[in-house]
Model the fold of this input.
Amino acid sequence: MPIPVFSVLPRLRSMGLRNLVPAMSAVTLLAGCALLQPPAASPPTPSAPPPAAVPAGPPPRTAVPVPRSKPLPPGLASPGLVTDGAGRPLVVGLNRQALIRQFGTPRAEREAPPARVMEFGHEDCRLAAYLYFDTARSDFYALQYEVNDSVERSAQADRCLARIARNAPRP
Done:
């Protein structure tokens, strides 16, 4: 049961000032001891590093991707041309500026809502790239194309794309 403060005060008065000063000094000294902290322990000395792990076997081999179709013959693709893995000139995924770098100045540009159509050509080869607005990138990008009015992909269409790119009039 706690002792009420008011019951202690009459006792302190009866002790007198001469006994009160040493008692208060002792309380102060004991309270100061509680604030002292023990000295910090020294950090442990590092031991030798653990031995390096020995590999269990040879590293895993990564598979080499096999092209889906035969690459174009040498000389068909132009240097600096953006191509797919098989060496064919890339159309899908390019924006207007990239198509111009790839195939030169377009022969014509027209609207075919919701698409914009860019037409390129060289002699008997014609490319029509259909660009649609991509809201994430805030620009028009080619999502489909026709070579000589056909959407079929063939070696002949690939050679036509390469010929247009190689002989493209650059701005």
